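Input record (one chain):
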Amino acid sequence: MKTYKPTSKSRRQMTNVTYRGVLTVSEPTKALTHGFRRSVGRNSQGRITTRHKGAGHKRLYRDIDFLYNKKDIPAKITTVEYDPNRSAFIGLAVYKDGEKRYVVLPKSVRPGHIFLVSEKAELNPGNRLPLKNIPVGTFVYNVELKPRGGAKISRSAGIFAQVVANADGYSNIKMPSTEIRKIPENCWACVGTVSNEEHHLENYGKAGRSRWKGIRPTVRGTAMNPVDHPYGGGEGRQGRGTKRPKTMWGKVTGGRKTRHPKKYSNVFMVSRRKTGKGRKSQ
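The corresponding structure, as predicted from the sequence alone:
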């Protein structure tokens, strides 16, 4: 991690990921980029569904290959690049037939690394193969949920899933959330751990840096009026005033299960995710 001399109050706490010696280019490949408009917390009707999002620096979108539909053709990583739209590092993969694609990089991969998408690929970082061909205990990322559906699981910086069993046409995958889930064995996954594992140690240091990222301020419920929040009102500092913690809309939080009892994917759940104080020790 990169730290700074305390030349100001914000600099004193600020930390950043060390990019020097890791990133190889500063400008993306133009043919694999395009402009886009971020949703900033709005749905298709324009209504806010996720609060505290908006503004932020303008971004150029990098087209990332999550399908990996070029099989049995080796590809060489030529660059390691920063992507403002995700926490992991990305790299430019040049296939043997000349095609170029951006991919999410695994940890410790540098320019010159060669990976392969094949059922007979070796268990090397970056190689992609079906879950049925991956031994129990292997760390994987970019995991599919449906065959040929593209990578959906374990794509963030420093994240990995783990294969814990292979049986009856399914692979049991331990998710980053500690949930264990059955996934069809003919789904594909990449071997390894996602790059930029120091991302979670980053300290923005000041409010302005959050605004650059598109994160807007959060107002505490106890600072609001009673009409705006269940915790609002009262003279001076007040306690919560309710038996259980609640959201702004009065829904109980803090221990109540929110997963729908008839959700389609319940049949694939082997073990629920661990929550609460004891999660880290399990």
